[in-house]
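Exam review. A common question shows you a sequence with its structure tokens and asks you to describe the fold in words. Practice with the pair below. Do the first one on your own.
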Amino acid sequence: MSVTAPGPVQSTLAGSTEATSHPDEQIIRLLTPQGERVASPELEPWLGEISAEELLGFYRDMQIIRRIDIEATALQRQGELGLWPPLLGQEAAQVGSMRALRDDDFIFSSYRENGVAHLRGVAFDDLLSVWRGNAHGGWDPYQVNMATTQVIIGAQALHATGYAMGIRNDGADSVAISYFGDGATSQGDVNKAMVFAASFGAPVIFFCQNNHWAISEPVGLQASRPLSERSPGFGIPSLRVDGNDVLAVLAATRLAADRARKGAGPTFIEAVTYRMGPHTTADDPMRYRDARELEAWAEQDPILRLERYLTSAGLLDDTVEADHQRAADDVTQGLRQACLGMVEPAPETLFEHVYSTPHSALARQQEQYRSYLAGFGSEGER
């Protein structure tokens, strides 16, 4: 199946400097906000038969990820983390896309894909260590096939493209995926990555979570057309899907991955969603965002949407809900224990894991730092 860019219908974002309160109708979906199943010629072939077990699994995943996010935010407010980037409202975009990938596909994320990291098997202490100030990165990328958190906006798109070019040169059929937000599409790194990906037919998925706010800047200020219309200019086909519809995201990512595995090159996916919380816990969105907008998007909530669908299908009952609640409780308890149980690293470990091989200049700096610390006396006197 071929992928085409959106048609020339004017977006509701055109000429606006404010975020929209509702996704416009040019967005492809399989579940309406009311939880009603709708057909989509573009995505239906890629969804296939989804079992009740799989549907409940998506619901469970999203509930657990939301609880992780809420707990981590609470830990930051309590002084246990220095910072945390909430993903509240973006659970479907992360669950749907990640569940469409294979274990050997490599993920390059921003700082907000902590739900993806959890589903990839990243341990709680590794997930939180950067935000607690205990580590440079957090986890071994090659244990879970996911690069560590990238704070430089859009840089991961270049990393994913380079990795994907390596996949192509190796003759493998795995893919790379880069996650970034709407604000990153204005960065040079993302645009350069698309140039290289298109030129070399790299098997990479550019997954944009358009959550409507690049910190305090609304998406309408930087884009008068849908973001999915940018990539065709580079020769990269795109899809614009409802990012709060886990089934649509799953199908779109499967489609993009299939194209990449067959040698058809990169795909750009714009998952239209909404950041319900602050950009980070250092941000106050009430200073720049209308509360009515947040209320309107609350009805688009990805978990509520799937819950409505599962209820109408007779798949949810008190037993299932209780099981999911226990699972979420166990996860959040484990997250908190991992955070509070972290041992502060020795000062000298600051120099570890900076380079992959021995580095003489870094070794010299480490020795100078040891001498500096020694000037304060024994460890007990520091």
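Now try the second one, then compare your answer with the model answer below.
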Amino acid sequence: MKSTFSDPACSVARTVELFGDSWTPLIMRDAIMGARRFDEFRKSLGIARNVLSTRLTRLVEQGVMTKRLYQENPPRREYILTDKGRDFFSVLIAMREWEARWLDEGSADSVTLHHSSCRHELTARTICGSCGADIALDDIEFHVDPACCEG
């Protein structure tokens, strides 16, 4: 029986339930970089067909991607990111920044990200949505709803 992490009171657990396997974030990376077709994902990732099919189906079911017919005979579909899927971009950027700081041992990343308007390389930041200040862990107060801890 498959274990589940979909604790309704925990946003991290619900996100891990959808994106927590080793393939789905890589599929999302490729989709964000422009991959749309099944064979594009397969070629980039070297993933088994059945695993890729299962992951893509789940992303479509959860509204992260949608399928669109691009060829009628034989029928072929491509996978298009929805707004929900496009929002995962910020998660990937944060993961990339964390890796560069803590795991990178001098290896250059083969892809750099630049803001199209000013041409500077992107840096992930966590900011307050109200005042715009940069936020670090020490700046956070956790307010936990007591109902989420009832057993």
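Model answer, second protein: The two ends are 23 Å apart (CA to CA). The chain has six helices and two strands. Full marks require stating both points clearly.
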